[in-house]
Amino acid sequence: MNEQESPKEVKGMKELVEYIAKAIVNSPDDVVVTEETGEQGITLKLQVADDDKGRVIGKQGRIAQAIRTLLRVKAAKAGTRVNLEIL
Fold first, then answer.
1. Is the pLDDT of residue 82 over 80?
2. What pTM value is reported for the model?
3. What SS3 string covers 16-50?
């Protein structure tokens, strides 16, 4: 992980995931995004209602993959790595 990474960049990634997830799900109040920083970079954990997991993952994982792609681009600009876990 890049030591120069600002918490603002992490917050921006977290807000991006939260914004996309809330737009997709039926229960936006149940969307929770938490972050963990480790030697592998940043891990964002997305929690949604059980009924909404399929919406966030999408057919053949396409929506989840698209969210991960956006995060990867944002992380590359910040000089770090990011991983998204859907719980």
1. yes
2. 0.85
3. HHHHHHHHHCCCHHHCEEEEEEECCEEEEEEECCH
